[in-house]
Amino acid sequence: MTRRRDFLAANGGRRVAMPGFVLQVRPRDDGEPTIRVGFTVTKKIGNAVVRNRMKRRLRALARDLLPVKGIAGADHVLIGRQGGIERDYAALTAELSKALSRAASPDTAPHDKPREPRVHHGRGKGRGPRGGAHRSPESPKESIQEPGRP
């Protein structure tokens, strides 16, 4: 998977959180039995070297387990978590196997329910408009009037 819209669609599917990663699974409606997979590791995890190492580990996990235990005709997204880089590969393999079986089960636990994607409100870290001055829409504008003018 390479398109943003595919990742956003998968975000609306079933989520299974594990200590090393989060698995998102969403069945596709195109009728093809192929398994698609995508990987994301945010900048919260570390520098580029650490993030790329985490992505390589997630790719290796997917290569080993998805052909055997993946859900046919579904998109799978693996999101790296902070503890995933230090975890043993065998532990990550067991976690992915458990997550795939949970995602494939018809009964969904409350923490595995699909959720609405978050709305992205622009760029940056949410510090408000440039210049540091923030005026709420409810506050009236102050205007300077010259004497003798209404």
What does this structure look like?
With 150 residues, the protein is α+β, with helices and mostly antiparallel strands. The longest helix is centred in the middle third of the chain and has 22 residues, at 48-69. Strand 1 (14-17) and strand 2 form a beta hairpin. It is built from three helices and four strands; from the N terminus they run H-E-E-E-H-E-H. The protein has a domain at 4-103: 2-Layer Sandwich (Ribosomal Protein S5, domain 2), CATH 3.30.230. Helix 2 (48-69) crosses helix 3. It is extended and about 85 Å long. The model has no long low-confidence stretch (mean pLDDT 81). It has a four-stranded mixed sheet with strand order 1-2-4-3, with helices on both faces.
- Element pattern in H and E: HEEEHEH
Tell me the number of helical segments per DSSP (H or I, 4 or more residues long): 3
The proportion of strand residues reads 15-25%
- Could you give the order of strands across the largest sheet? 1-2-4-3
Shape: extended
- The CATH architecture assignment of the domain at 4-103 turns out to be 2-Layer Sandwich
Coarse structural class: alpha+beta
CATH topology tier name of the domain at 4-103 = Ribosomal Protein S5, domain 2
> Mean pLDDT, rounded to whole units?
81
Low-confidence stretches: none
- Major sheet size, sense and barrel closure: 4 strands, mixed
Helix content: 25-40%
User: What is the β-strand count?
Assistant: 4
Radius of gyration: 22 Å
For the terminal residues, how far apart are their CA atoms?
Answer: 63 Å
CATH class of the domain at 4-103: Alpha Beta
Region (Disordered): 99-150
Pfam families: Ribonuclease_P
Keywords: Endonuclease, Hydrolase, Nuclease, RNA-binding, tRNA processing
EC number: 3.1.26.5
